[in-house]
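Worked example 3. Consider a protein that binds pyridoxal-5'-phosphate.
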Amino acid sequence: MGSRDAPSIQAAVPSVDRVLRLTAVQSLIETHGRRVATEAVRAVLDDLRRRLSVEGEAARPLTTQEAIADRVRETIEARSAPSLGAVFNLTGTVLHTNLGRAVLPPEAIAAVAAAAGAPCNLEYDLDAGRRGERDGHVEDLLVRLSGAEAACAVNNNAAAVLVTLNTLALRKEVAVSRGELIEIGGSFRMPDIMARAGCRLREVGATNRTHAKDYTAAVGPRTALFMKVHTSNYTVEGFSAAVPVGELAALARDHGVALVVDLGSGTLIDLARYGLAHEPTVAETLAQGADLVTFSCDKLLGGPQAGVIAGRADLVRRIRRNPMKRAMRCDKMTIAALAQVLRLHGDPDRLAERLPTLRHLSRPAEEIEAQARRLAPALAGCLAEKATIAVAPCQSQIGSGALPVERLPSAALVIRPATGKRGSGAALKRIARALRGLPVPVIGRIHDGACVLDLRCLEDEAAFADQLVHLRPA
Ligand SMILES: *Cc1c(COP(=O)(O)O)cnc(C)c1O
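Given these inputs, the predicted complex is written out as structure tokens:
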């Protein structure tokens, strides 16, 4: 097979230097730099050699100067485009961990940009002219909103739980109900976290029922904490019992141990005022006697990824002194965003307008349905014979393990592949792929043989509609 003969392949592939001297490649060097261009040329030529050896003469057209320069340009463009970018979250899960959870309000985005683009007083006390506290930018706000004596922030709630346990219960025992030994996605399992924090988990009660006497029976000389974990991504229903925070707090005091409550999502305001189910607030939990609470900032709080520890000042002080806290400290951009989100919480009357998470969660189904009706014809036009479009009611969920059984009535564009003889599963995949391939990728969910686009989180309707012309399912 002459075409697979090594010397003839070598002859067909130009040298790296020759490709770099091509006019088209010279202009790529000017835009992207010599190093990026050289790496791309190497990759393209390696690929070319491989294809020539596999495909032989069939790959010959790829060896022209134009073809090589085109491939180099494509390679550079693919490599220089950011891999992280905006998408339309039409999954119906408002706080979607895979899609970055909470969308920040403009006030927070501006604060992030300001803190990121210049030196800032992150740990500098401008009044005194000396070193300050990075948590100081959020602590007063947290204290005012929750009634806590003190508070500090770390990178996420998993870190908050870890550093709290490690500080207060190292080599000691922590009593937790068997009904609350949660796993949250991404390998956060309470028993594993306990082990990594250096504590001994003392399981209390049964999966469905735990009583005060079970905690009492578990107390021994090594008991440091009672811990209550909000079962944020499931519910225990039927024949079940748990000890409420107030009662558990009193019991903890009687035994001289502290009570830590991991609220999971945590909210600083009563969500019932926005038409959502009541979720225990940080203030309520502290008022009921918890010594410390931990919660996420990018779940119902609608802020950046962070975790807060709030409660007794002496305990927060001990946590601050733990070197582990230093390893988990928040970045300036996070502090900037969190402070602004907390400021918005100071005005609950306007929070549902100003905080995107709450705005999405409280959007009325009729409004979403009207939006779906406006968009359906354009989508139908773009998919022509490939699919049919219907507007249908659907149910959104909050996501990220907040209010797990709560469903929010919503409306969706339901895309069904035009029923061919077979392979409609493949047709559905092609449609979903085409939606993901749009300039701003559209992420829906596949349900019951259709691609469902829940419009609850669609704010920029014009941007969504304008890009539909690019929709080209293969
Ligand atoms: C979500 C959650 C966590 C983890 O919070 P992250 O901020 O995602 O690290 C911990 N505990 C509970 C109960 C949760 O719901």
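Take a moment to read the result before moving on. Residues 156-158, 161, 182, 184, 188, 229-230, 232, 262, 264-265, 296, 307, 401 surround pyridoxal-5'-phosphate (CB under 6 Å). Residues 154 and 329 are 5 Å apart (CA to CA).
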